[in-house]
Amino acid sequence: QVISGGHYDVDCYVEDPNGQTIYKETKKQYDSFPHRTEVEGIYTFCFSNEFSTFSHKTVYFDFQVGDEPPILPDMSNRVTALTQMESACVTIHEALNTVIDSQTHYRLREAQDRSRAEDLNGRVSYWSLGETLILFVVSI
């Protein structure tokens, strides 16, 4: 997700270790890309700002490696139903994952809004300084 800069858009591509492009998008503000790897090695991802060289951008990205391990041992091999305590643990775990996703979303929004506020503060400061200078010139 592009947090600040320009029109909040950026180009992105992902390549596998063989050099094959597995994802390519242009001028995106945010996107999600799930991919299960088939080739072992180093994957390359690149964010490009070629089309907008005058504006600097801040980009947030997050990736997960591997599957989440089961929260209870033997959960994948289990044949019987979960106990009430185990079921409650699974429910709490899922709720906490939702909370983590929400916190990340709100942190990104806060960073975006903070960037806009700081930009606006700078513009107001320069405008006020200009008005002050004009006021002094007119009064002299």
TrEMBL record:
SUPFAM superfamilies: Supernatant protein factor (SPF), C-terminal domain
Coiled coil: none
SMART domains: EMP24_GP25L
Keywords of the record: Endoplasmic reticulum, Membrane, Signal, Transmembrane, Transmembrane helix
Protein name (record): Transmembrane emp24 domain-containing protein 3
Transmembrane segments: none
Protein family membership: Belongs to the EMP24/GP25L family.
Gene3D superfamilies, alphabetized: GOLD domain
Subcellular location: Endoplasmic reticulum membrane; Endoplasmic reticulum-Golgi intermediate compartment membrane; Golgi apparatus, cis-Golgi network membrane; Membrane
Chain ranges of the GOLD domain: 1-65
Record Pfam families: EMP24_GP25L
Membrane disposition: Single-pass type I membrane protein
